[in-house]
């Protein structure tokens, strides 16, 4: 007998999960970032095509759940055509609201998508002479919760090690 209770996903989450927008690798991306969630061990890659400090195109690859796929789909739609500065301001709550809400146990899936975007933006400015004044020097909570691949692998390998 099935024991799992279906999560209360909104119809938009379900629609985007089945038919995500902007899914796939971008070979000519200006910048890309890979981030993983310590909460579940899933990963996401965000690809950005940037021209004149604007996001012309954004795509993603998700190795996560329905909520993460829907959040990344919505996020990549929201950031298209925005200045990098405005894309930086998108929060996981904005994404969740646009999706009609995420179940509480799935908040981290939206945070992972936004964290990956912020990591991509930070990577874009890394090594550039000018550090924009709107870009915080310290990493934000979303970035902290969307770990770089190496850090995630380290955590996951420790989880698998008996005490
Ligand atoms: Fe891992 Fe949603 S449960 S991204």
Topology:
Layout lengths: L10 H8 L12 E6 L6 E9 L2 E9 L3 H14 L4 H5 L3 H7 L8 H19 L15 H5 L3 H11 L4
Antiparallel strand pairs: 1-2, 2-3
Protein model, in words:
This protein has helices at residues 11-18, 66-79, 84-88, 92-98, 107-125, 141-145, 149-159; strands at 31-36, 43-51, 54-62. With 163 residues, it is of the alpha+beta class. The chain is globular. 36% of the residues are buried. The model has no long low-confidence stretch (mean pLDDT 92). Residues 37, 40, 42, 64-65, 67-68, 106, 109, 112 line the site of FE2/S2 (inorganic) cluster (FES).
Which short descriptors sum up this protein?
single chain, 163 residues, alpha+beta, three-stranded antiparallel beta sheet, 7 helices, 15% strand, globular, binds FE2/S2 (inorganic) cluster
A few lines on this structure:
By secondary structure, this protein is of the alpha+beta class.
Secondary structure: helix percent: 40-55%
Which class of secondary structure composition applies to the elements? alpha+beta
Number of helices: 7
Q: What general outline do the C-alpha atoms trace? A: globular
Per DSSP E runs of 2 or more residues, the count of β-strands stands at: 3
Strand content: 5-15%
Low-confidence stretches: none
H/E series:
HEEEHHHHHH
Main sheet attributes: strand count, strand direction, barrel closure: 3 strands, antiparallel
- Report the end-to-end length measured between terminal Cα atoms: 34 Å
Radius of gyration in whole Å, from Cα? 16 Å
List ligands, each type once: FE2/S2 (inorganic) cluster
User: Which whole number gives the mean pLDDT?
Assistant: 92
Strand ordering within the main sheet? 1-2-3
